Amino acid sequence: MSASTSGRLGWTVLAPPLATVVLAISWGSHPGPVAASLIGVALVGAVLAAVHHAEVVAHRVGEPFGSLLLAVAVTVIEVGLIVTLMASGSGETATLARDTVFAAVMITLNGIVGLALLVGAMRHHLAVFNAEGTGSALATVISLAGLTLVVPTFTVSEPGPVFTGQQLAFAAVASLALYGAFVFTQTVRHREFFLPVRDLDGDGHADLPTNRESWTSLGLLVLALVTVVGLAKVESYPIEDAVNALGFPHATVGVVIALLVLLPESIAAVRAARLDRVQISLNLAYGSAMASIGLTIPAIAVASIWLDGPLELGLAPLQLALLFLSAVVGVLTVVPGRAKPLNGAVHLVLLAAFLFLTVAP
């Protein structure tokens, strides 16, 4: 194996098979704290390996296809975690999908974007990006969030912040349509709007991976995704037990899921920002937010056919206020096409407010 190959693969080749072994040993059990911690290590390793191998394949296909692939890979993990927790969790599950999707939106719009802008602007004086492409992405995210998370709060056909079956079906189809339209715009019609403004020669990667390396990473990616879903099912009880033991609201479970699956995206976004490729960071952030809604909501809509209990998607007043602030600040950040460190700091403060108010509403 060449040096470039070992740099791409290394421990990430071993992580998915080892996680699969852990899954086979722990399947069907209700692990205690020590065992749950060890399983959690395997789960995190599988998540990191999954997104790493997605990045290898993404590097082969180029931008903006790479960012799109990473976003979809993360969303597959997120959907698997949500469905398994809803199917096997012992606590409240009616709001799990809403809390997880909303957490993903807040973490991407404020956490990943804030980190990328802060790092990029601090290192290169200003963080420069394409306002047209990024503005289109943000508009799509806001529309998706409004349609699936805000509208259910105000519908009156069913009591509570829930959709009727017909409304949920419409929201699912509309979400897929919006996401599909954006993907077409990003990858076909106006691809140039989503490429880095300053396209540097050194992008932080070695030479392009060979076909063999790419296919190997694709296979390991699939294995890692399947393993993540299985380990999440095993960990569902310990996660809820830990949240209950700490006395945190049940919405914290959704935040834990979102933080887990978006951590590798955050690392990739910061790395791109350090290389003055903030557009790639924003593609990752808004693409992940978009996929979290546009793909998760339809998947949950289908899963709700056999899952028992109501599905509450409408946001609470406090969540609506945080989403409104994030949308307004996001628009003001994107419009100029460049950002100062202050812009990143504002987004990070909004993220901190979201995390604090989740555990202390």
Automatic annotation (TrEMBL):
It holds the Pfam family Na_Ca_ex. The chain crosses the membrane at residues 34-53, 65-89, 101-122, 134-156, 168-188, 215-234, 246-263, 284-307, 313-335, 342-360. It is a multi-pass membrane protein. It comes from the Bacteria. Residues 39-187, 217-358 form the Sodium/calcium exchanger membrane region domain. Keywords: Membrane, Transmembrane, Transmembrane helix. It is found in: Membrane. This is Ionic transporter y4hA. It comes from Nocardioides daeguensis.
